Amino acid sequence: MASAASSAFTAFTSSTDYCSRRAKRAIQIGTLQVRTVRNHTTFLKTTINAHAPTTTSSCPSSSVIKSAMATESSAKIIDGKSVAKEIREEIAAEILRMKESIGIVPGLAVVLVGDRKDSATYVRNKKKSCEAVGINSYEVRLPEDSSEQEVLKYISDFNDDPSVHGILVQLPLPSHMNEQNVLNAVCIEKDVDGFHPLNIGRLAMRDREPLFVPCTPKGCIELLHRYGVDIKGKRAAVIGRSNIVGMPAALLLQREDATVSIIHSRTKNPEEITREADIVISAVGQPNMVRGSWIKHGSVVIDVGINPVEDAKNPRGYRLVGDVCYEEASKIASAITPVPGGVGPMTIAMLLSNTLISAKRVNNFK
Ligand code: NDP
């Protein structure tokens, strides 16, 4: 990695950033306001009939569902912040065990091109997360007018560097670069974002295993697992079919033997399809689009959306809401993720997890 040595090495990034890109750049994932962290086991016992988070939006109730919503919020809150903390502690313990056993520490590298403030913020936040669990983080920062060849050279150096187990390219790249060329240059063994076509292809195929699963959808499934939600044989609706969230989330649910419907912008009857689902994962980017009337009684709702909406009362002038109208859905679902504090913290935790998986695999450490 000789050519990288002259650059400032500090931090890295992940797929969390894509959400923020969609969310009009206004969001700082690492500083999302969430509730107090609690022990996960205790939490599971205590969150039934829990309060709604303060940051969700008010959704005007449609007359259709007013009667169904006569009761207070009854859904269990799926607390991504708490679960993510628990996962980070598990990762830190594993990293320590590996270091003490074989002297190897996982390393994650980021390539950051240009001087966008939001990108710099994400990189900084993720660097902190790395440091907290004991992952070495490396960063190469290149000026906006760098050539694609220069970026590819740094990726090649990181591909060859045995101390780097994961590589992330901070998106968006400047418009003169071909994003696909750059992402495809990351070797599949270090593709901790899981976006390489080979990893996605393996995810889609029966009896094949991807080396890495994309972080946000992996975080959604992990939340379902940790909250004991049965997936096998259930009906699931995934709203959104993007390469980074919706599509891999649907593939993951299918791999777990759910029967999956995928809803997108051309779907004719999204409410009806969603209403049949026992599990709903929404990754659309439209604030409060999924109303209470879309939700089946007792279903589990995972809201990936992170959308800024104007809020004059908030010092920032905006607040974050999900795709799902929390106020309505939480009265009908049996469990639901809040926004913020649901899927968001899981994405970074899964990135750390993928980096650890990579380091273990290459060193054959069980
Ligand atoms: P994309 O814009 O890439 O994809 C949005 C998807 O939603 C598309 O498949 C689109 O359909 C579909 N869609 C758009 N409008 C509608 C509609 N009215 N009805 C049904 N489907 C619709 O977004 P991303 O997948 O990148 O992100 C989705 C959301 O998730 C965003 O709010 C983002 O901020 C958030 N996010 C959160 C993360 C986290 O860590 N919590 C990480 C990543 C994203 P079509 O394909 O037909 O265009």
Automatic annotation (TrEMBL):
Involved pathway(s): One-carbon metabolism; tetrahydrofolate interconversion
Gene Ontology BP terms: photorespiration; tetrahydrofolate interconversion
Swiss-Prot/TrEMBL keywords: Hydrolase, Multifunctional enzyme, NADP, One-carbon metabolism, Oxidoreductase, Photorespiration
A GO molecular function held by the record: methylenetetrahydrofolate dehydrogenase (NADP+) activity
Family: Belongs to the tetrahydrofolate dehydrogenase/cyclohydrolase family.
Quaternary structure (record): Homodimer.
The protein's name: Methenyltetrahydrofolate cyclohydrolase
